C-alpha cells in the first residue's frame, strides 16, 4: 500500500514540476510556477518517508537510527539552505546557484556510492550498474566542479590556474575513472565488490571536476554553472533509474535537457563553442587590440546627465560593474527623472551581462526597473542609430566594436551592443583599464565617445543632482 | 526494492526522450530576462534527488552506507530548499510598468 501511495505522489510531483516550470517561463506567471513546483517537492519528500515501511532486510535493525538520521539531515540541510538563501545578496546569486547545484550533484553521487558499496546496483544487472557508475561520475564532477565555480565567483579563489599539460591530465583522469567504472561494473556482475576501487573511482571523479574548472576564468562561469546544472540533472536521472524512481528520472531528464539548451544558448551569445569554454582556449590569441587611433576624451558626470536630460531617446547599457558598485537603485532614480521629462529610456542587456544569463535583469528588477523597458540584444541593436545618447555603465567587452571587424581579436565574432552607432556615447568607468578579455576597447577612443571616470554609484549621485538642479 | 512500476529497457528510453523534449520546449521559448530564475528553478527541480537519498539512507545496512546516505540527504535537502528560496526571491522582483501592464505578455 505504501508503495502505491509513493508512486501516486511521484506521478503528481512530476506533473507539478513540469507545470511549474512551464509557468516559470513567462514573467507574468513565474511566481506561481515556483510555488507549484515547491508543492510537488514537499509532497514527494513526505511520501518518501513511507519507504521506511518497506526496507531491505539488512537495514531492518537500523531502521530507527536511519529514520532519525533522515530527520536530522533534512533539518540541517533545509535549515542551512533556507537561511543562506534568504540572506544572500542578489549580486551573489550565481555562486549560490552553483553551490546548491553542487549539493544536488553530491547527493546523486552519494546515492551511487551507497548503491555500489552495498552491491545493490550490481545485483540488478549490467544496465543498472552502468547507470549507477555514470551517474556517480557525473554527479561527483558536478559537485567538485560547482564548488570551484562557487569559490571563484565568491572571490575565494582568484585567477586562472593552469597545470602544464592540463588537457592530457584531464584526459587521463577521465579515461582512468571510466576504466575504473568499467572494472566496478564487470567485477560487480561476478559478485565482487571492491571497496578500494569504488572509493578510488569517486576520488578520481572529484579531482576531475576540480581540474576541469580551475583553468576556466570568471567570465566563463555562467556557461560552466549552466553546464554543471545540466550534469546534475543527468546524474539525478541516472540514479533515478537505478532506484526505479520515476520522479527522479523525469525531473532529472527535464533539467538535463533544459540545462544543455541553456548552456548552448549562452555559449552562442558569447560566440564560443562550449568545447572552447571547457577546454579554456580564452585568451589564446595574444592580440590586445593593438594601437588604436584617436584619444580618449573625458566628460563630467553633470555634462553627461544634462545631455541625456535634453535627449529624446536614451539607451542604457548596464554591466556587472554597475552591480558591483551597487548603483542600480541610483540609476533607476535617475531614469525616473528622465522619464518624467519625457525622455524615451530603454535598457539594453547583453546576453552575458552579469554573471549568469539574465542576471542583470534580476539586478535591475531588484532596483524596481519594470521588465518591459529592458530589452535583449536582438531587440534593441537596430535602435542605437536612432538614440541621441547611449550610456555604458560598468560594461566593456560587450560594447567593443572590434568584435565586428578585427579578425585577430580574441573577441572577434562575439555579438555586441552597437553603442558606437549612437549619436553620442558615454562610458562610465572607474579607470582606464582593459576589459576582462584584456583587449583595448575601440569604443573608448571613438570620435563620439566621452569617458566619465568614477565609481558608478558616485557618478549616478552627481547625475541626479545635476538633473535636479535644472528644475 | 520491489517497486510497483518497473522501468526497464525501452520504457526507460521513452521516458528519457519525452522528458528531454519537455525540458527543451520549456527553455526554448523563454525570454532572456528569465534565464537566471529559470536556471535556478531547474536547479531546484533536480533537488528531487533528496527522495532518492532518503531511500538510500532508510535502506542503509552498514555504518558506511549510513554516513554516505546522511550526506546524500543533507546535500539533497540543501539543493531543494536553497534552490526554492533563491528562485522565489528572484521571481518576486519581476514587475511590469504600471502604465503598460497589458503589453507585458509580449515580452
From TrEMBL, chain B:
Record field: transmembrane: 6-24, 44-61, 67-86
Alphabetical keyword list: Cell inner membrane, Cell membrane, Membrane, NAD, NADP, Translocase, Transmembrane, Transmembrane helix
Catalytic reaction annotation: NAD(+) + NADPH + H(+)(in) = NADH + NADP(+) + H(+)(out)
GO MF, one example: NADP binding
Membrane topology term: Multi-pass membrane protein
Compartments it resides in: Cell inner membrane
Protein task: The transhydrogenation between NADH and NADP is coupled to respiration and ATP hydrolysis and functions as a proton pump across the membrane.
Protein name, entry field: proton-translocating NAD(P)(+) transhydrogenase
Amino acid at each position: 500500500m505504501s508503495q502505491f501511495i509513493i508512486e501516486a505522489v511521484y506521478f503528481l510531483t512530476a506533473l507539478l514540476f513540469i507545470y511549474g516550470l512551464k509557468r516559470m517561463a513567462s514573467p507574468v506567471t513565474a511566481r506561481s510556477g515556483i510555488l507549484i513546483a515547491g508543492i510537488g517537492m514537499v509532497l514527494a519528500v513526505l511520501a518518501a518517508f513511507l519507504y521506511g515501511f518497506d526496507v531491505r532486510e539488512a537495514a531492518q535493525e537500523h531502521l530507527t537510527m536511519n529514520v532519525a538520521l533522515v530527520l536530522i539531515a533534512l533539518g540541517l540541510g533545509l535549515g542551512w539552505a533556507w537561511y543562506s538563501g534568504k540572506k544572500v545578496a542578489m549580486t551573489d546569486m550565481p555562486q549560490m546557484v552553483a553551490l546548491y547545484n553542487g549539493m544536488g550533484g553530491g547527493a546523486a553521487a552519494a546515492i551511487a556510492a551507497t548503491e555500489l558499496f552495498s552491491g545493490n546496483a550490481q545485483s540488478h544487472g549490467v544496465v543498472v550498474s552502468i547507470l549507477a557508475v555514470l551517474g556517480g561520475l557525473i554527479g561527483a564532477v558536478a559537485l567538485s566542479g560547482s564548488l570551484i565555480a562557487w569559490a571563484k565567483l565568491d572571490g575565494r579563489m582568484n585567477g586562472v590556474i593552469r597545470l602544464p599539460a592540463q588537457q592530457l591530465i584531464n584526459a587521463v583522469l577521465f579515461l582512468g575513472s571510466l576504466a575504473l567504472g568499467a572494472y566496478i561494473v564487470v567485477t560487480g556482475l561476478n559478485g565482487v565488490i571492491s571497496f578500494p576501487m569504488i572509493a578510488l573511482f569517486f576520488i578520481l571523479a572529484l579531482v576531475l571536476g576540480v581540474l576541469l574548472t580551475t583553468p576556466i576564468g570568471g567570465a566563463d562561469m555562467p556557461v560552466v554553472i549552466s553546464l554543471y546544472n545540466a550534469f546534475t540533472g543527468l546524474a539525478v536521472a541516472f540514479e533515478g533509474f537505478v532506484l526505479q524512481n520515476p520522479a527522479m528520472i523525469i525531473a532529472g531528464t527535464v533539467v538535463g535537457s533544459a540545462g544543455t539548451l541553456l548552456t548552448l544558448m549562452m555559449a552562442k551569445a558569447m560566440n564560443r563553442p562550449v568545447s572552447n569554454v571547457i577546454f579554456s582556449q580564452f585568451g589564446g590569441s595574444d592580440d590586445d587590440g593593438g594601437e588604436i587611433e584617436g584619444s580618449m576624451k573625458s566628460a563630467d558626470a553633470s555634462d553627461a546627465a544634462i545631455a541625456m536630460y535634453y535627449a529624446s531617446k536614451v539607451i542604457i547599457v548596464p554591466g556587472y560593474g554597475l552591480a558591483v558598485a551597487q548603483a542600480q537603485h541610483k540609476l533607476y532614480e535617475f531614469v525616473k527623472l528622465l522619464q518624467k521629462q519625457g525622455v524615451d529610456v530603454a535598457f539594453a542587456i547583453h546576453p552575458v551581462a552579469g554573471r549568469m544569463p539574465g542576471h542583470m535583469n534580476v539586478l535591475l528588477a531588484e532596483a524596481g526597473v519594470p521588465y518591459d523597458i529592458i530589452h535583449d540584444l536582438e531587440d534593441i541593436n537596430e535602435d542605437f542609430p536612432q538614440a541621441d545618447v547611449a550610456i555604458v555603465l560598468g560594461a566593456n567587452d560587450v560594447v567593443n566594436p572590434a568584435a565586428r571587424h578585427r579578425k585577430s581579436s580574441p573577441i572577434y565574432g562575439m555579438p555586441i551592443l552597437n553603442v558606437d552607432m549612437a549619436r553620442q556615447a558615454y562610458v562610465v568607468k572607474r579607470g582606464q583599464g582593459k576589459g576582462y578579455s584584456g583587449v583595448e576597447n575601440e569604443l573608448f577612443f571613438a570620435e563620439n565617445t566621452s569617458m566619465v571616470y568614477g565609481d558608478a554609484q558616485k557618478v549616478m549621485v552627481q547625475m541626479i543632482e545635476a538633473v535636479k538642479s535644472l528644475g | 526494492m520491489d517497486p510497483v512500476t518497473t522501468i526497464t529497457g525501452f520504457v526507460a528510453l521513452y521516458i528519457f526522450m519525452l522528458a528531454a523534449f519537455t525540458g527543451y520546449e520549456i527553455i526554448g521559448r523563454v525570454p532572456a530576462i528569465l534565464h537566471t530564475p529559470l536556471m535556478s528553478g531547474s536547479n531546484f527541480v533536480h533537488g528531487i534527488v533528496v527522495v532518492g537519498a532518503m531511500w538510500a539512507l532508510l535502506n542503509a545496512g552498514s555504518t558506511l552506507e549510513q554516513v554516505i546516505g546522511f550526506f546524500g540527504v543533507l546535500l539533497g535537502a540543501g539543493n531543494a530548499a536553497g534552490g526554492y528560496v533563491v528562485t522565489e526571491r528572484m521571481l518576486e522582483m519581476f514587475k511590469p510598468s504600471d502604465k503598460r501592464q497589458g503589453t507585458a505578455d509580449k515580452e
